[in-house]
Amino acid sequence: MPNSSLTQQNHSSNETLLDASVHSVLIILYSIDLAGGTLGVIVMSHQLFRRKSQSVMTIIIINLLVLHTFLLLSIPFRLSYYILQEWKFGTFTCRLVSAIIYFHMYTTFSFYVAIIVIRLFQLEFKKCYTTTWVIAVWLLGALVIAPVFLSYYGTSKTYTSSHCFHFQQEIQELRMTIVNYCLVGILVAVCAVLTVIQLSVIYRLAVKYWPDINSHVEFRAQAKSFFFILVMLVCFMPHHVFRVYYIQNYHPDKDHKLLPYNEIFLALTTMCCLDMLYFAVPGRLLSFQQGYIGLS
C-alpha cells in the first residue's frame, strides 16, 4: 500500500509538472503571436493605407489582415485561461474562441493557396471577380461553417465551466472523426502538390537564369511565393500530422497525456499571423506586388 500511494503521488507530481511546462509553452507562443501579430497588422495596414493599391494581391493581403485581427482579439482570452488556469468567460465564449482559431487556420490556408496558385500559373483576374470569390469565402465561413461549428462543437458532452478547450470527447463521435480525417487529407495533399510544383518551377527558373537569378523578376516572384508554402509546412502541417496520431490513440490514452501536445501543435498554427512582419519590411510589399506581371 505505501508503494502504491507513493506511485500515485509521483504520477500526480509528474502531471503537475507537465501541465505547468505546457502552460508555459502556450503562454510564450501566444504572447509572441499577440505581440508580433499586432505589430505586423499595424505596420502593414499603414503601408497599404499609404499606397492605396487595388491589386488582386492587395485585396488578398487585406483579407489576411482582417483574419489575423480576429485571431489576435481572441488570444487574450487564451492567455487569461493559461495564466489563471481557470476559464471565467462562460461556455459559449469558450466555444467561440475555440472556433476562431480553426476558422482562422483554414481560411488563411485558403488565401495562401489562392496566392500560390495565382502566382504559379500567372493567372489574371478582374478585381470584381476577386472581390466576388473573397466575399463568397467570408459568407461561407460566417453564415454556414461558423454557425454549424458553434451549434455542434462542444455541445454533445458535458464539460466543466471552469475549463476550456478540452473538447477531446467529441472525437469519439464517428462524424467528427470523418471530418478530421477529411481536413487532414485535403490539407496534406494540397501542401504536398503545391510544394512539388513550386520547387520544380523554382528549379527550372534557376537553371534558366543562372547565375544572375536574382536579377530576374520572374524568379524572385516564385521564390517569394515559396514563403507561403513554408508557412503552411511549418505552422499547419505538424498539427494535422499529429492530429491523425491523436485521433487513433485517444481511446488508449486514458490519462489524456496527448491533449497538452495537441494544444501546443494547435498553438503553432497561430504563428502564421506573423507573416505580415515579412511584408512589413520597407519596400517588400511593393516588391511582392510588382513581382507578378499583370496582377495590378
Automatic annotation (TrEMBL):
Membrane spanning residue stretches: 20-44, 56-79, 99-121, 133-153, 178-205, 226-246, 258-281
GO molecular function, one term: G protein-coupled receptor activity
Subcellular location field: Membrane
PANTHER family, per the entry: G PROTEIN-COUPLED RECEPTOR 141B, G-PROTEIN COUPLED RECEPTOR
SUPFAM superfamilies associated with the record: Family A G protein-coupled receptor-like
GO cellular component terms, A-Z: membrane
Keyword vocabulary terms for this entry: G-protein coupled receptor, Membrane, Receptor, Transducer, Transmembrane, Transmembrane helix
Membrane topology: Multi-pass membrane protein
Protein name in the entry: G-protein coupled receptors family 1 profile domain-containing protein
Record-annotated G-protein coupled receptors family 1 profile domain positions: 36-278
Main location per the UniProt record: membrane
A family per Pfam: 7tm_1
